Structures are given as structure tokens and as C-alpha cells.
């Protein structure tokens, strides 16, 4: 642990907290359970499923943190939140101080507390696990502190350096772009974020349903960035509306590309062009961003009754749970591996099952069949079994020869991953692009082959989590700032 963190840990108030309970007593406290809406109600509602823990629950859960001398949980956090410090502030009942601590490194704490896979990151490194105890509920506590600050109208802003007048452009307002913008604003830069859509937030708005991440929560985080001086320009497609040369001529001395990966992948099987077969990107964007779930909408989405979602990740879970809320009588997950290999969060799988979602694991679609009007009416599934592990460590799905099943569907949503939109890479002359369409960057600085252009998030990774994209934003901001200062 670095000397700065060690000094913070030795502050008198934290020493007193550590003395107030023995470690054995802290470990004996059971982990808090997240309150949830009842499954029957929520499957017909867009209300947020997780309702948040109470102050008393937060105070009790915070006591479970052992305030380790070498906190491995921090290294598991892509944005390096000082986790023990913010949790100890909660235990000390200084919730606003906890919220301030979160904002030292995270531009979106209320978002991360809801959608980050803490169980695979910070919580997976919690020392409780070595003691055969459940990890501290770091994600629940992060959400609690951020929500408490907002609900008590006591929103604070991180410390900002004096404005240096240097203009920086950000392409894309998703988690990578917002995280980068927040850090650059702290460093004193004049930051403008350019967004192609009419709403700020990127995948946080178009890709994640409100029952998991309410838009109002995202809007508050964005408003905080505005108060920090970040400017936002919507309906502006960099590469079309504005070119790289336009940005340079307007005086932007640095550019961060965070345009995401919005190009959906398909399986290229017979019948995939039938009406009623669409990508998860289109489905979720139309519902989440365009209100297509309302029958009076200008472009209403089809309300399927037998809906199949192809895939096993979080996007697939978001899609199938959305279909359930839109009235699907039979909402199905079709996944070629077993449940154990699903990349979706355990919590999302649990919620889906509680809401009546059917899981058809070890099945893979090989053909869609249409009716006389060209609309999908059936799909043929190939039965699968698990073979040897592949490069990802998951067991490879293998066809069971001759074993198929035909089932009725009136809508299919394909959620098998995304690729970067080629517009940005093709419009920035001199960018090195991989064969997968991702922008190639220096792994330490995220600088591209163009000296003034950096990139991060899904446009580099090809599809990842919100928090990994945010980590990229922070890394790129630190590297760009260091380079600017050295000039």
C-alpha cells in the first residue's frame, strides 16, 4: 500500500473505529441482502428492481470491513476507488464524506453501484473470502452513499484545478467518455463531449433498461459533470457532422475517442433477414431511448408473445426481461452453453428466473422460418453438449449430431456481441485499426498512432463492462494530462 493510503488509514478516527470491534466480531456479521421489488409486480413494471439498502443496513454492513492494512479490493477496482476509506466513513455515519471519497476517482458512483460486476472485481478480492465469509457488499454501499447524497440534496463536486484554457474534445458520451471528461475537468481543461444521439449517456441510456439503471440517475451524474464545466453537444456525428480537421481547426489540442461498439453481430444463418429478427442494440435502443414500448410511439416496437433472445450475457438478460415487461407470454433465453458458462451477472440471471424467463441452455439456432408475409414464425435449434475448454476457459459447445428441435417464435432478438462502428476509425486518417475494427492503442497510455488522439472503452476493447470503460477514461486522461504538462 502506498504511503498516502497508509497515512489515511492511520487517521485517529479510523483507528478508533478499528478498536470498536474485534475482527472476529466483524466477520461474524452476516452480509446485507439487497431489498427487491416483488417479482410478479416488477415483471410488468419499469420500476427499478433493486430498491437500495437503508441507512441502518449500510451502517451495519460497513462494520464488516476490516480496514485491511493492504486493501486488495482497491486493486480490483478499475477506477481505483479508495474502498476502505469510503466504507469507514459510512461506518462513522459520515455518509456525505463517503460520497465525496467516491468522487475522487469515479465520475459515476451511483451508476457503478448499480451495474458494475463487483462480484468479479473488488468484491472478489475481499479478505472475507479467505476466511470463508461472504465479501463486504462494496457495490451496495457505493450505491447507498451516492443515493444518500443525491436524495439529501447535498451533492458535492470534486476539487477542480484552475482552468488552463486548453480545449479537449471527447467523441462519445458513454462511460469511457464521461469518465475521461470528468478527470480532464479536474485537471483544469476546457472539455467538450460530442454525442451522435439526442441524449447524453451512451450505452448507459440506450443499452441498459430503467428497471436496472433509471435514466434519472444517469442524468444527475451528467449534471454533476456540467457543473464541473464539461460541455455537451448532441446530434453531432464526429466523422460526418464534424471531421478530425474541423476539431483541430476549432482549437482542440487533444481528442479522446470513446465511440463505443454499436455495430451488432449476427450469426449469418438462414432466415436471419426475416421481419421480427433484430439485434439487441436495435431492440433496447428503440425501447430505452425512443419510447418504442408505448403503443402511441412514432416507431413502436413489435410486442411479441413468443420471444427468443439469443445469447447469455447481460445484454441478453436486459433484452429478455424487457420482452417480459412488454407482455411476452413466453420469453426465452437460448444459449449454446450451460448456465455455468453464462457471462451474465449471477444477480441478473436470478432476477430473470424470478420473473418467469425460460432458459433453454445447450441450444443454438441454426435457421429461422418465416410465414407467407415474411415474418419469423419458428426457429430450428441445434442441441449442444459441452466439450473441452476453449481459449476463454469455458467449455466449448459441440453439436449433438442429428438432434434438433423446432419451436414457435414471433420475435427473435440476437444478443451475441457487438463490434466497433467503422465510422470513426475510417474518418481519422492514420489510425491503426485491428482486424476486428478496434482502434490500436499503447496499452500504458491509450494513445493512438496519432500523437494528439487517445482512445478507450469498447472502441478499443470491442465490448466490455461499464467500469472497464471508465477505467480506460481515467488512464487516458492521466496520460494526456502528463503529456500536455511536459510540453
List keywords for this structure.
487 residues; alpha/beta; Fumarate Reductase Iron-sulfur Protein, Chain B, domain 2; FAD/NAD(P)-binding domain; 5-stranded parallel β-sheet; 20 helices; 15 strands; 17% strand
Count of folded domains: 3
Which stretches are poorly predicted, pLDDT < 50 over at least 5 residues? none
Number of helices: 20
Write down how many β-strands occur, each being a DSSP E stretch of 2 or more residues: 15
The assigned structural class equals alpha/beta
What is the name of the CATH superfamily of the largest domain? FAD/NAD(P)-binding domain
Oligomeric description of these chains: single chain
The main sheet comes to: 5 strands, parallel
Instruction: Write down the CATH class of the largest domain.
Output: Alpha Beta
What is the typical, i.e. mean, pLDDT? 95
Note the overall shape: globular
Strands of the widest sheet, in order across it, are: 3-2-1-4-15
Distance between the termini: 31 Å
